[in-house]
Design brief:
The protein is mainly alpha-helical and about 400 residues long. It contains 18 helices and six strands.
Length: about 400
C-alpha cells in the first residue's frame, strides 16, 4: 500500500515527467529513429572500417608519427581536465623529444619530414590519410617496445598529464584498417555471438548511461524534500512506521519509476535488433537485450538515487544536485577521449560502438566489477541516509536550515 502511494506521488510529479522527457529526447536525438544499420561487407569495397590494434609495431608507428607532427608544430595537445590545453615546450624539451624521435626511427627529423613530403606528393588525395602516413614511419631494428614505453612516459612527463602519449591514451588511439576477411569476421561475430541484440544493447546502454548518471538526482532530491515542501514533517514524525521502511519504500519507488522509461524508450532499438538479425537469417533476443539494460543501467540509477538520498537527507537541501553534476562532469571528462571500452571505476562506462565483441569480452570482468561497485555504493549511501533520517526524525541531529 505504501509503495503504491509513493509510486503515485512521484508519478504525478512534474519533475519526474521532465526527467522522463529529457531521457527520451536525449536517447532519440543520439540514436535517431533508424538507430544503426548493420551491413554485411562485400568483397572489393574501398573501406571496411577500422578497429583497435594490439600490434606493437602499429602502436609505435602511429604514436611516433603523432609525436613527430606535434614536434613540428612546436605545440602539444593535452587534456588535463578533459579540455584541450596547448603546451608550448622549451628548447631543451624540444631537444629531448627530438632525440627520442630520432632514436626510435633511426632517422633525423629532416629525413622523416622528407619521407612525409615525398609520400604526400606521390599519394592520390582519396588514399591519403593518417594510416598511410604512419605506415611510412620507420622503426629502428634495435628499438624495443619496452624502450618505446619508457620514452613515451618521459614525453608525458615533459608535456604534462593528459597528453596523447600517456600509455592508456596511445593504446586506445592506435587503430588498424580492416580488410574484407576481418570485417566479415566481425560481422559474423555480431550475428552469432551477439545475436545483433547484444551489440545494439551496448550502444544503447552507452548513451543511456550518460543521461542516467545525472537526471535521476533531480527526481530523488524531489522525493526526499517532498515532506518539507508539503510541511508534513511533524505528521511523519508521529507515525509508527519505521524510518527504514518509509525511506526504503521511497527509494524503491524512485528506482522503479526511473527504470520504467528506460525500458520503454529502449523498445525501438530492441525490436530493431531483432528485425536486423532476422534480415540476415539469424535470431535476435529481446531477453539478451534487456539483460544488458538491467545489468548495465540499473546500477547507475541505484548509485545516483542512493547518493542523492544521502546528500539531500544530510544537508536538507538541493546540494545533491550540485554534487551529482560535478560527479557527472568528472565522469565524462575522465573518459571523454576514450568512448569504446573505457571502464575503470567510472560511473559512466563507455562502449560507443556496434559490434567489437572481442574487445567487450576483454573488458567484461572489469565492467562487472564496475557495476557491482556502483550498485553497492548506491545501496550503502541509501542505508546511511536511513540512519540520518531516523536520527533527524527523533530530533537527535539537526542538519540543514529551514527554508
Amino acid at each position: 500500500m505504501l509503495l503504491k502511494k509513493e509510486l503515485s506521488l512521484t508519478f504525478r510529479s512534474l519533475t519526474y515527467w521532465l526527467a522522463v522527457l529529457f531521457i527520451g529526447v536525449f536517447l532519440f536525438t543520439q540514436l535517431g529513429s533508424d538507430f544503426i544499420s548493420l551491413k554485411q561487407p562485400e568483397p572489393g569495397q574501398s573501406d571496411y572500417g577500422i578497429a583497435h590494434t594490439t600490434n606493437k609495431k602499429d602502436i609505435q608507428q602511429q604514436t611516433i608519427y603523432n609525436l613527430l607532427q606535434q614536434y613540428n608544430n612546436e605545440s602539444y595537445n593535452t587534456y588535463p581536465l578533459g579540455f584541450l590545453k596547448i603546451v608550448k615546450p622549451s628548447k631543451s624539451d624540444q631537444a629531448v623529444i627530438e632525440k627520442i624521435i630520432e632514436g626510435a626511427t633511426g632517422r633525423s627529423i629532416n629525413q622523416l619530414n622528407q619521407i612525409q613530403t615525398s609520400h604526400m606528393t606521390s599519394t592520390p588525395a582519396q588514399q591519403f590519410n593518417a594510416f598511410t602516413m604512419a605506415e611510412k614511419i620507420p622503426i629502428a631494428k634495435s628499438y624495443t617496445y619496452k624502450q618505446f614505453e619508457k620514452n613515451m612516459a618521459e614525453v608525458e612527463k615533459i608535456i604534462g598529464k593528459g597528453s596523447d602519449f600517456a600509455k592508456n591514451t596511445y593504446l586506445h588511439q592506435s587503430y588498424k584498417k580492416l580488410n574484407y576477411e576481418e570485417a566479415n569476421h566481425n560481422f559474423q561475430t555480431t550475428l552469432t555471438k551477439d545475436r545483433v541484440s547484444g551489440a545494439f544493447a551496448r550502444m544503447t546502454c552507452d548513451y543511456l548511461g550518460i543521461i542516467l548518471a545525472l537526471v535521476p538526482v533531480f527526481v530523488a532530491a524531489t522525493v526526499v524534500l517532498r515532506d518539507r515542501r508539503s510541511q508534513s514533517q511533524l505528521v511523519i514524525q508521529t507515525k509508527r512506521i519505521s524510518s527504514f521502511k518509509l525511506q526504503g519504500t521511497r527509494f524503491l519507488a524512485t528506482v522503479i519509476l526511473l527504470l520504467l522509461p528506460v525500458i520503454v524508450f529502449s523498445f525501438l532499438p530492441a525490436f530493431q535488433s531483432v528485425y536486423v538479425a532476422q534480415k540476415y537469417q539469424h535470431t535476435g533476443s529481446l531477453f539478451l537485450f534487456y539483460q544488458y539494460i538491467l545489468g548495465w543501467l540499473l546500477p547507475t540509477i541505484v548509485a545516483v538515487v542512493g547518493i542523492s538520498f544521502l546528500v539531500t537527507t544530510l544537508f536538507n537541501g538541493l546540494v545533491s544536485v550540485l554534487f551529482q553534476l560535478g560527479l557527472w562532469l568528472l565522469s565524462l571528462l575522465v573518459n571523454g577521449r576514450q568512448v569504446v571500452g573505457s571502464i575503470g571505476l567510472n560511473l559512466i562506462p563507455r562502449f560507443n560502438a556496434v559490434g567489437s565483441r572481442e574487445l567487450f569480452e576483454g573488458i567484461f570482468t572489469e565492467l562487472v566489477v564496475n557495476r557491482v561497485f556502483w550498485f553497492a555504493l548506491g545501496v550503502i549511501c541509501f542505508l546511511i541516509s536511513c540512519v540520518i533520517f531516523d536520527l533527524k526524525r527523533k530530533g537527535r541531529i539537526h542538519y540543514g536550515h529551514p527554508r
